[in-house]
Design a protein that fits this description.
The mean pLDDT is about 95. This protein is of the alpha/beta class. The chain is built from 11 helices and 9 strands. The two termini are about 20 Å apart. It folds into 2 domains: about 5-130 and about 290-300, Aspartate/ornithine carbamoyltransferase (Rossmann fold); about 130-285, Aspartate/ornithine carbamoyltransferase (Rossmann fold, 3-Layer(aba) Sandwich), CATH 3.40.50. The longest helix is centred in the C-terminal third of the chain and has 19 residues, at about 280-300. The chain is about 35% helix and about 15% strand. Helix 5 crosses helix 11 (about 280-300). The protein has helices spanning about 10-25, 50-60, 85-95, 105-110, 130-145, 160-170, 190-200, 210-215, 235-240, 250, 280-300; strands at about 40-45, 65-70, 95-100, 120-125, 150-155, 175-180, 205-210, 220-225, 260. A 5-stranded parallel sheet has the order 7-6-5-8-9. The chain binds N-carbamoyl-L-aspartate. N-carbamoyl-L-aspartate binds next to helix 2 and helix 6.
């Protein structure tokens, strides 16, 4: 049985197959409409989410399956003190596959030790978010036509932003990717990503503070929200939250084919005036997230169509 805990759980070849499947689902949705008839997905969300939880639910419903679950720790038995291990043992009796989001790093990994159904990590603390990475890869491959030979700007909260950590882990396996890490000093990449992932793989990267200085060199700009819930004090958050605001003026400095991605939710870091720019790809990214989660569910349940 397979789980998805880290973006590295799939080899590059397996990822290619998964993205091909997602592409086929996009083109021929009717072919997959009953692929998961009779199957149940459980969504175990111990932390708030709109997109990720609903996109999993939408993915399973589009496959003909059904969904159950909870959307906050407060509404589950976690509030009575039940452990993740006990919850997952029980859920294994109710569902065929589950997606778990948890504020503690490693919680979905703990679940895999006792689960008799595939577990998908839907975000664990500031650590990893592999299904957002699948979404990002599908968006890049679909709109840029490749996953190699790219200069990628990662901007905002690189310290706590798990989507950035997962994306870097996945992308170091492709050729000729240049990473431009754009953040204030306090929100730089953690060393376990900088040293153990970027440097260990011999990747070229730079760390800068000013977006204006580098935006003109990028094929892709991945904006992120300052992760308020992971800050130790509100003062630091307030000081840093509006450090970057991508607006029309900054977009004028960018290449005509630079794409703007964002895992969403957006707060202030992208001005709404950018939404109508043809380079803004963050709402298209949401749609790709459903196709790729459909492909993931089929792959982990070993359903072939
Ligand atoms: C991201 C997350 O939860 O890490 N959201 C998402 O799943 N699309 C990004 C964020 O919350 O900033």
């Amino acid at each position: 049985m397979r789980h998805l805990i880290s973006p590295l759980d799939f080899s590059v070849e397996e990822l290619d197959r998964l993205l091909d499947l997602a592409g086929d689902i996009e083109k021929n949705p009717a072919k997959y409409a009953h692929a998961c008839d009779g199957k149940i997905l459980a969504t175990l969300f111990y932390e708030p989410s709109t997109r990720t939880r609903l996109s999993f639910e939408s993915a399973m419903l589009h496959l003909g399956g059904q969904v159950l679950g909870f959307s906050s720790a407060a509404s589950s038995s976690a509030s009575k003190g039940e452990s993740v291990s006990d919850t997952i043992r029980m859920i294994s009796c109710y569902a065929d596959i589950c997606a778990m989001r948890h504020p503690k790093e490693g919680a979905p990994m703990v679940a895999t030790a006792v689960s008799s159904i595939p577990v998908i990590n839907a975000g664990d603390g500031g650590h990893q978010h592999p299904t957002q990475t699948l979404t990002d890869l599908m968006t890049i491959r679909s709109l840029k036509g490749r996953l190699d030979h790219l200069t990628i700007g990662l901007c905002g909260d690189l310290k706590f932003g798990r989507t950035v950590h997962s994306l870097i882990k996945a992308l170091v396996r492709y050729d000729d990717i240049d990473f431009v890490c754009i953040s204030p000093e306090e929100l730089k990449l953690p060393s376990y990503i900088r040293e153990d992932v970027l440097e260990a793989n011999g990747k070229h990267y730079q760390e800068v503070e000013r977006l204006e200085d580098v935006i003109g060199n990028l094929d892709l700009l991945y904006m992120t929200r300052v992760q308020r819930e992971r800050f130790f004090n509100e003062e630091d958050y307030v000081r840093l939250k509006d450090f970057y605001i991508l607006d029309k003026k900054k977009m004028k400095l960018a290449r005509p084919d630079m794409l703007v991605l964002h895992p969403l939710p957006r707060v202030n870091e992208i001005s709404v005036e950018v939404d109508n720019d043809p380079r803004a790809a963050y709402f298209r990214q949401v749609q790709y997230g459903v196709y790729v989660r459909m492909a993931l569910i089929l792959t982990l349940l070993e359903v072939t169509v």
